[in-house]
């Protein structure tokens, strides 16, 4: 292995500060005690051979994809015998969409298509000629798309390239017409409907996007006419309109595989053959018609206004809206079919001032297949005070694989805060007096009341400060309160008739127990007191000395293709190096191969054109005589598919798998998981996020974080904090919402993740919240995250939010408690310097930011004694 030595392209900021003199930093004294630096070596491999780590992680990715597939319809056709001859059509048959585009992409070694997965499982595919023809059409369309982007941007080395690339999503071409003669003697056909989406652009009510295209309708018509049995596979990052699929009698099965990662083809084959029994559940409500969503007409570009986004639905997102307003969904939240059936019984309920626990027994009552079931616990809250949703998810758990006739007893618990509401007048989380009806089942519309929590008198369990006040008037929709009362009263009456247990429940105010300052924090505090003002300024800005500010998404130098690094200004003087961070919501997004000249120490093939789409936009080859290096990463399923597993231990395992790669490639921070709410199905980045519901988002993010941070020296960066629920005009959109909606829906998942897993970092979002950019929000970064939730890590900006088109003010980031500006630009230095001079920014605030940064840096893999975070 070669010692890694950085080839710097210049350090203008250090020179301007007077810190860089004659090729070195001056004043080399006072290095931190007890902190032993590692000797950095090349993290990549010089061998193209498949590694044991790759094989192991692919197996984990395959299991996660299979458990995240949701069976929406099955009229006896599934499972299939792998010896069966099937006709396979559709854009995603041979070109299966593994994940979204942009920063959420992953450059894996290879991805298994549905076509390849079925062939490997033993299926005889009768339509290979159609698939080969489609492959040629696809390649021509890709090359035309590439040429369009290069011409419009002026090349891959321009500042406009990423913006144009991300806002010009590739649209999969239509295949040739399916001929009837191809279907002679074929009674089973599989049709794959695929969609591509990514950051910086929302989706549309168009054919070929939310709606089926005319070609897709024609294809399905031919298949349904000529074949007796049609199976439809939905290979898309988010919802599409599938009402007509449900109404067609020849379509016997529908499966939503989402974007299943690099092992998607094998995972689907596992489900179709019954090797894995479907156990995924939806984490979103699927509507019968798009117009059924409460913000259908006003979301993003739908009303022509992408500047002001009024969250007029308040707390009524997803099933909370559908159930409270009496709107019938096509597929309810939490829904998913199996090849077997289960009985769920609640045996006992216990409650104290902090926790409610249900002892539940699940039995596989099927005769043939083993399988897993998801227990879902909901609560219908009293409606005498604040108007609330009809029901809310409180907790969930997934069984092991149960054989026919086998049972499993489990305890499902949730904190008292899961059933309380935020009272804006009292600025407090309040448990109102009344009866709270607990229900269990396997979807939000298939529930049975099992007990009652009785709160005798109102209790304030947490008093908090007001945050993010509305700057303009907002009219929120409200359900008919009398109808909600009747619903809850009906459940209460049923509970009385069935003599369900009534459990006294007296939630009490919870005292926040702040984590003590650890050894790293103490050493960081000592070091920060010795730093000059100019060193402090440099530390809150990403490493721009190596040209990082000129690109977006491939700004790293230590790890080619990584998203960026923290400043190395303290490296020689204080032994505090910069650390690397990597994009990729579905795995690490690094350049999968590049070359390195050990004589000149120069890296070739490490630009953004190599980082995007597996190097599709790159034209330059490897340098003659240079050593080729490889960084093959695992493309796991996207966030929505992971959440559809409803399997928290599995997500921890996925997190550990990614952490092993982080250690191998010397990446300290993974810019994931994404956990914004699916407020509307048209958000272009929904695939990265988990759900329409906060508990799912928070618990999934916490599990991923626990898995990653169980491995020493690495951590997650949960994002985007907060209300990043649309992509059109994402840097200028103002999310206008009530404090109650903000706290109960859009911050709640982040709160759960922080309180239960303490991620190393949080990334703020681009958008404004009630007129203030998230990166400049003291209410978000300090009041909520640190003072209320006791967040101990660092907070960083999303990339380029302090650029001219970003809207965030650099000095206000530090003043708000947003510690790190990424990737940084030269203007950030002068802006912060002038704010210190004018007194707008206090130096104590700047030192606090740097103290937090160094505290976390000391716990990364750049140091020998790093251990699992938090220490």
Write the layout of secondary structure elements.
Layout: H1 12-17, E1 20-21, E2 24-25, H2 52-68, E3 70-74, E4 85-89, H3 114-120, E5 124-125, H4 128-153, H5 161-167, E6 188-194, H6 214-226, E7 229-235, H7 243-247, E8 251-256, H8 264-273, E9 286-287, E10 308-310, H9 319-324, E11 329-331, E12 342-351, E13 355-364, E14 374-380, E15 392-398, E16 407-415, E17 421-423, E18 428-431, E19 434-443, E20 446-455, E21 459-463, H10 481-497, E22 502-504, H11 519-528, H12 533-539, E23 564-565, H13 571-574, E24 580-582, E25 593-597, E26 602-604, H14 608-611, E27 627-630, H15 639-643, H16 648-665, E28 669-670, H17 694-709, E29 715-721, E30 734-736, H18 739-746, H19 748-757, E31 761-764, E32 768-769, E33 772-773, H20 778-788, E34 794-796, H21 810-816, H22 826-838, H23 843-857
Parallel strand pairs: 4-5, 4-6, 6-7, 7-8, 10-30, 20-22, 24-28, 28-29, 29-31, 30-32, 31-34
Antiparallel strand pairs: 1-2, 3-8, 9-11, 12-13, 13-16, 14-15, 14-19, 17-18, 18-21, 19-20, 23-24, 25-26, 25-27, 32-33
Helix pairs in contact: 2-8, 2-16, 3-8, 11-23, 12-23, 16-17, 17-19
């Amino acid at each position: 292995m070669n010692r890694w030595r950085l080839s710097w392209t210049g350090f203008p900021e250090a020179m301007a500060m007077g810190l860089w003199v004659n090729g070195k930093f001056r004043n080399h004294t006072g290095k931190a005690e007890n902190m032993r630096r590692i000797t950095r070596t090349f993290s990549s491999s010089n061998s193209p051979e498949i590694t044991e780590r790759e094989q192991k992680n692919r197996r984990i990715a395959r299991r996660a994809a299979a458990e995240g597939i949701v069976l929406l319809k099955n009229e006896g056709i599934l499972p299939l015998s792998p010896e069966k001859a099937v006709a396979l059509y559709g854009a995603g048959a041979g070109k299966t969409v593994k994940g979204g585009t942009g920063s959420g992409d992953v450059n894996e070694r290879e991805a298994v298509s549905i076509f390849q997965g079925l062939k490997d499982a033993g299926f005889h595919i009768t339509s290979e000629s159609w698939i080969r023809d489609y492959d040629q059409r696809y390649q021509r369309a890709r090359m035309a798309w590439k040429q369009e982007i290069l011409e419009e941007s002026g090349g891959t080395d321009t500042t406009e390239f990423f913006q144009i690339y991300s806002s010009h999503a590739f649209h999969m071409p239509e295949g040739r017409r399916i001929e009837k003669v191809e279907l002679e003697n074929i009674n089973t056909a599989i049709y794959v409907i695929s969609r591509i989406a990514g950051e910086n652009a929302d989706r549309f009510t168009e054919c070929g996007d939310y709606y089926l295209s005319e070609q897709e309708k024609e294809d399905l018509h031919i298949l349904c006419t000529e074949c007796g049995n049609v199976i439809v596979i939905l290979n898309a990052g988010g919802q599409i309109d599938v009402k007509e699929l449900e109404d067609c009698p020849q379509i016997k099965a529908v499966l939503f595989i989402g974007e299943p990662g690099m092992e998607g083809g094998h995972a689907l084959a596992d489900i179709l053959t019954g090797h894995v029994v479907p156990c995924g559940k939806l984490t979103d409500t699927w509507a019968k018609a798009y117009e059924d969503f409460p913000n259908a007409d006003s979301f993003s570009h739908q009303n022509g206004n992408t500047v002001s986004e009024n969250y007029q639905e308040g707390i009524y997102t997803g099933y909370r809206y559908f159930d409270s307003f009496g709107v019938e969904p096509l597929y309810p939240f939490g829904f998913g079919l199996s090849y077997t059936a289960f009985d769920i019984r609640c045996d006992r309920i216990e409650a104290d001032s902090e926790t409610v626990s249900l002892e539940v027994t699940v039995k596989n009552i099927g005769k043939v297949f083993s399988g897993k079931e998801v227990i879902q616990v909901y609560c219908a809250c009293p409606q005498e005070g604040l108007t609330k949703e009809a029901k809310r998810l409180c907790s969930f758990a997934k069984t092991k694989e149960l054989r026919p006739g086998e049972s499993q007893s489990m305890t499902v618990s949730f904190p008292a805060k899961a059933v309380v509401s935020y009272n804006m007048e009292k600025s407090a989380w309040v448990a109102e007096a009344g009866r709270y009806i607990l229900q269990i089942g396997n979807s939000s519309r298939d529930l049975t009341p099992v007990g009652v929590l009785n709160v005798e008198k109102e209790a304030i369990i947490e008093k908090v400060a007001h945050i993010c006040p509305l700057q303009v008037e907002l009219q929120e929709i409200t359900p008919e309160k009398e109808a909600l009362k009747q619903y809850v009263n009906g459940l209460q009456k049923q509970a009385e008739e069935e003599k369900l247990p009534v459990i006294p429940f007296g939630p009490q105010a919870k005292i926040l127990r702040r984590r003590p300052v650890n050894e790293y924090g103490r050493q960081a505090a000592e070091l920060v007191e010795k730093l000059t003002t100019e060193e402090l300024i440099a530390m809150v800005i990403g490493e721009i000395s190596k040209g990082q500010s000129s690109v977006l998404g491939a700004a790293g130098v230590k790890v080619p293709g990584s998203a960026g690094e923290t400043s190395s200004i303290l490296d020689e003087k204080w032994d505090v190096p910069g650390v690397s961070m990597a994009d990729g919501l579905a795995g690490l997004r690094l350049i999968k191969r590049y070359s390195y000249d050990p004589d000149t120490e120069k890296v070739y093939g490490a630009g953004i054109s190599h980082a995007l789409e597996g190097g599709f936009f790159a034209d330059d080859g490897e340098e003659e005589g240079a050593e080729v290096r490889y960084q093959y990463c695992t493309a796991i399923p996207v966030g929505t598919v992971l959440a559809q597993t409803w399997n928290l231990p599995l997500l921890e395992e996925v997190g550990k798998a990614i952490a092993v790669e982080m250690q191998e490639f010397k990446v300290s921070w993974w810019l994931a998981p994404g956990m914004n709410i699916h407020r509307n199905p048209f958000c272009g980045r929904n695939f990265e996020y988990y759900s329409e519901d906060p508990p799912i988002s928070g618990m999934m993010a916490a599990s991923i974080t626990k898995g990653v941070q169980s491995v020493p020296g690495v951590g997650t960066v949960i994002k985007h904090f907060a209300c990043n629920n649309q992509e059109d005009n994402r840097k200028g959109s103002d999310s206008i919402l009530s404090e109650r909606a903000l706290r109960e829906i859009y911050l709640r998942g982040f709160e759960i993740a922080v309180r239960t897993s303490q991620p190393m970092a949080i990334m703020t979002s681009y958008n404004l919240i009630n007129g203030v950019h998230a990166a400049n929000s003291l209410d978000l970064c300090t009041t909520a995250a640190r003072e209320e939730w006791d967040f101990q890590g660092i907070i960083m900006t999303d990339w380029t939010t302090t650029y001219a088109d970003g809207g965030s003010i650099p000095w206000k980031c530090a003043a708000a408690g947003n510690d790190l500006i990424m990737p940084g630009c030269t203007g950030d230095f002068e802006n912060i310097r002038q704010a210190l001079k004018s007194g707008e920014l206090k130096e104590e605030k700047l030192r606090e930011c740097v103290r937090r940064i160094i505290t976390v840096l000391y716990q990364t893999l750049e140091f020998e004694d790093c251990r699992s975070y938090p220490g």
